[in-house]
Amino acid sequence: MSRFCRHSRFIERCPICRDTVPGLAPASKSSSLSAGSRRASSSSSAAARRRAQGGRRNLRVYSDGTPRGEDDGYSCALVPGLHNSQEAQRLAEEIAYSCARLAILEDSPPGLYAEVRQQGSWERATWMCFLIAYLSPLQGDTPFLGIRKALRASGGGDVPDWRDEAQLPDLQDIPLGPRTSHDPARGTDTLSAYLQWAERAGSQVGAFSGDATWSEERRFERLFERLALPGLGRMGRYDMLVTVGRLGLYEMRADSLHFAGGTTQATDDLATLTAKRLFGIGDPLVLERRAQALAKASGVPLEALDLAFANWGVAERANLGMPADASDAAVLERAQDALEL
Question: What is the pTM of this model?
Answer without folding.
Answer: 0.78
